[in-house]
Design brief:
about 400 residues, globular, 2 domains, single chain, Peptidase_aspartic_dom_sf, five-stranded mixed sheet, Cathepsin D, subunit A, domain 1, disulfide bond, PEPTIDASE_A1
């Protein structure tokens, strides 16, 4: 989740639940059976389950590959769960490759987080106060609090999980984020503050890889709509990896040699951040205005984004050339149903000028079209088509 691009309304959090079986034995269930957005699922007869799944166990019986499900809130956000402390408190968090650091709401958090789940280190037998402050700013506001070292467990109660003892977490006492159902962020950026990296260092995963899969569920409010796989590349919901690409900085950024939409194109290589915590795709003002002009059936402009009719919408693909391969995002994945009623949709391409570090942010529209795998050791990103890209 990057500064200047993500408003609080775009964020929310949901739970992943108990132990399941491998997909070949225990198919994952969608709420609407084999239908997804009115289309019969193709390629694989696999559906979502609300359970986590152990995929394999390492030789030392400690390392493993496993996945937990993520919940989709109307294609605006995808979220999972962590536990903090002992006894553990389950906290709903945003899964965010665009930021580092993990924080959760603390006891007494206010004003806007007072009615949300919280973690109280005074009630945890394993908590150690660092006596340091915690502050993190985002586009939609900020969080402020203090540091605590405690056990963070990735995964929910009763499901496969990995406890990471004595890890630093931010405990938030004040935030400007209001009206959200998320109560924390799990930052997956390359950082010493990332608990996944610490789990990799401790040998908990078969491979130093996480793999993220999102799908469309435009009218959902808390539907299972994705997964995060730890320790291996996701293969049940994603096709084979097309290519592995080196990142262009310490963040999950890739070089994009060409961007083309309709009759417009840019052939100057730019750097793009892959960000699971951002609802839209963002780019420089002068380029995005030309891209938005390629769409003929816009109805009105709302702040930074155009509104278009959801029904009978036709638009060009968004083509990003990475490593010589063209990755095309199709219209159903860059439209976001504004109110969940199938009438008004946001055209998910907005303007944001970031400066020299990176120029574009590829948020969930790109990540619904393509599965992404992140190798923390080689610092590469693998891209693959999703079996449910539409």
């Amino acid at each position: 989740m990057k500064s200047l691009i993500l408003l609080p309304v775009f964020l929310c959090v949901a739970l992943a639940f108990g132990i399941g079986q491998p997909p070949t034995q225990h198919p994952m269930r969608f709420t609407n059976g084999n239908q997804a957005d009115g289309k019969v699922l193709e390629k694989r007869d696999i559906q979502f389950d609300t359970d986590a799944t152990i995929l394999s166990v390492g030789r030392n019986k400690r390392s493993a590959a496993w996945r937990i499900n993520l919940w989709d809130y109307g294609d605006w956000m995808y979220n999972g769960v962590i536990q903090v402390g002992n006894p553990p408190v389950s906290i709903m968090v945003l899964i965010d490759t665009g930021s580092g650091g993990t924080w959760v709401n603390g006891a007494g958090c206010q004003p806007s987080c007072r009615d949300q789940p919280f973690y109280d280190p005074k009630k945890s037998s394993t908590a150690r106060n660092n006596s340091k402050g915690w502050y993190q700013a985002y586009g939609g506001g900020y969080v402020n609090g203090y540091e605590v070292r405690d056990t963070i467990t990735i995964g929910g109660v009763g499901q496969p999980n990995i406890p990471i003892e004595n890890f630093t977490v931010g405990v938030i006492t004040n935030t400007t984020f209001g009206g959200s159902t998320y109560a924390g962020i799990l930052g997956l950026e390359i950082s010493d503050w990332n608990p996944i990296q610490e789990a990799i260092r401790r040998g908990y995963f078969n491979n130093p890889i996480i793999s993220i899969f999102f799908r469309r569920f435009p009218n959902s409010r808390n539907a299972t709509g994705g997964s995060i796989t730890f320790g291996q590349v996701e293969t049940d919901y994603c096709k084979p990896v097309i290519g592995w690409y080196p990142i262009t900085s310490w963040r999950w950024q890739l070089g994009v040699s060409k961007i083309a939409v309709g009759s417009w194109s840019n052939t100057t290589t730019v750097s793009a951040l892959l960000d699971t915590g951002t609802t839209f795709i963002y780019g420089p003002t002068n380029q995005v205005e030309q891209i938005q002009a390629q769409f003929k059936n816009k109805t009105y402009y709302d702040g930074n984004l155009w509104v278009v009719p959801c029904n009978n919408f036709t638009g060009p693909t968004l083509d990003f050339t990475i490593g010589g391969h063209v990755y095309s995002v199709q219209a159903p994945n860059y439209l976001i149903d504004r109110y969940g009623n199938g009438v008004e949709c946001m055209l998910g391409i907005g303007k944001a000028d970031y400066g020299s570090q990176f120029q574009w942010v590829l948020g969930t529209p790109f990540l619904r079209q393509f599965c992404t795998s992140y190798n923390y050791q080689t610092q590469q990103i693998g891209l693959a088509e999703s079996y449910w890209y539409l």
